[in-house]
Amino acid sequence: MTTRQSTGSADTDDGAANGEGSGLSEGAAVSTSSASSPASWIRELAAGAPEADAQALLAALGGKGLNLARMTGRGFPVPPGFVITTAAYRRVAAGA
Questions:
Q1: Does this model's pTM top 0.85?
Q2: One digit per residue, pLDDT tens: the chain, 96 residues?
Q3: Phi-psi group of 62: left, alpha or beta (phi > 0 → left; psi -120 to 50 → alpha; rest → beta)
Q4: What Å distances lie between residue 3 and 14, 35, 54, 88, CA to CA?
Q5: How far is residue 25's CA from residue 52's CA, in Å, rounded to a whole number?
Q6: Which candidate among 15, 28, 45, 58 keeps its CA 20 to 30 Å from the CA of 4?
Q7: What is the rounded distance in angstroms from the CA atom of residue 26 to the CA atom of residue 19?
Q8: Where are the chain's structural domains?
């Protein structure tokens, strides 16, 4: 089972201070489970999700995933979907 925690509302210059969401489903910003756990490798995009720290999202999702999450959170027309985390990419790239 994966335990997840929200990282709060601290953010940089992406407009988060204006109440724009991160675009991730609630509590999905940072996983406290092991990076090797398959359940922690996927983040669902969800409109109206709560804020999260941009640096934590960048580390977890990579640049493209972070931007998709931001657009979704701000109400842009992004198809429903999910993001594969950077931890999952690194594990597959390493041949594990």
A1: no
A2: 333 433 333 333 444 433 445 555 544 444 334 556 677 888 888 766 655 678 888 888 899 988 888 888 888 888 888 899 999 999 999 986
A3: left
A4: 27, 12, 20, 17
A5: 11
A6: 15
A7: 15
A8: 4-93
Q: Which of 19, 30, 18, 20 lies closest to 56, judged by CA?
A: 30
Phi, psi at residue 16, to the nearest 5°? -60, -30
Tokens representing residue 16 in the block? 């988060």
Estimate the crossing angle of helix 86-93 against helix 54-73, to 10 degrees. Answer: 110
Whole-number pLDDT of residue 22: 57
Q: How far apart are CA 47 and CA 26, in angstroms?
A: 10
Q: Is 64 exposed, middle or buried (0-12, 13-18, 19+ CB in 10 A)?
A: exposed
Tokens describing residue 73: 């959170």
